[in-house]
Give the backbone structure.
Amino acid sequence: MPQGFNKGYLPFFLFYVFVFMAIAIFTSFINVYFYQLGFLVSQIGILTALGPLISMASQPMWGVLSDRTNKRRVLMIVLAGAAIMSLIIPLNSSFIWLVIVLLIYWSFATSLLPLGDAITLQFLEGKAVKYSALRIVGTLGFGLPSIFAGVLIGGNIGRIFYYNAFFLTITCLLVSFMPVKEKSTEAEDIHGQTDEQEQEQIGEEPEVQSGFSAISKLIKNKVVLYVYLTSFIFGMTMSFLHNFIGIRMTALGAHEGQVGMALFIAAFSEVPLFLIMDRVFAKRKPEHLLMLSAFFMGLRLLVMFFSNTIMLIYLAQVLHGFSFIIHLYFCIVLLHKHSPTHIKSTVQTVHAMIRMGVGAIFGGLGGGVLAQYIGIQNVFLLLSAIVFITCFVVPGILIIIHKSKKRNL
């Protein structure tokens, strides 16, 4: 166990294990389920976009409700709602039915992680155990059902809904044991700053403001704005990559076990990154780290473009840790650092809305429709160019210009 560990951390460790098991078994194979039902790629893109679409309304709602009431109780409601809807989804296979029930399911499920992260980060303030230590067990939780997918599914892909409901139910029970600071407006952040000090840093007046008013001023902070912008790009690329990699592999003749192995490789690639995250990357400039993650994301998408064998897809998945996880980790940490205490949950859910909402709609719906006409592989090439240019090349040029101006001064 990590240094400073005590039994109070156990519900948080187990939360990330089981919530990521639920995420893995559902999101990794739901589009393969649609593909086996005979839907077109464009129809699958529409079904894929339902989660991000509904999250734009549901995530801010759950985030504000969590900040204003009982964080733990709100998270338990969201988990229970998602578990119940998971059992209802496979009762009918018509397109209209799936649109309706998936909208309800995702109105709960898309807020699971941001709400859980907000509770976890608040609990860890001033403690020896870091967020990366908890998040790494989530990686292991994601990998377990992926590596055993062939055995768990056993040729009946409809089982994913029942496994998902089971894992979410266990997670809901675990949340009831989480110690939570419900009243946090007077608490200090991880750097020992009060709300008033945080507000002064981001240009706010010390008086208490509404959540959305505070966020409107918060996004004027260049770091927060940069995080949200790159999160949109990464959300778009990860949505298409995660939702269509199973279909791409199935078209190449892969079975559920091989699809699960590709997902396990991606999950396992996160482990070494989390082990060195705080020690190696903590002193680096965040904009440089986000650019580094963009380089590897662009490279990963480029390999997917050339992938005509299962082994090449496995190779692309190895780059997951260096691309997605570095970016996501520092986005969450930076937003927690730069946001006032009384809107931390809201800021995290807005971030999730941008990444898993707006960005994922473009990646799922737009990418699915585009793939219908130019093919899945060509969409990978297009996304690779977008990531390289917007998140790596342009920021690099701006940094060079900024350093040149400083030298002249």
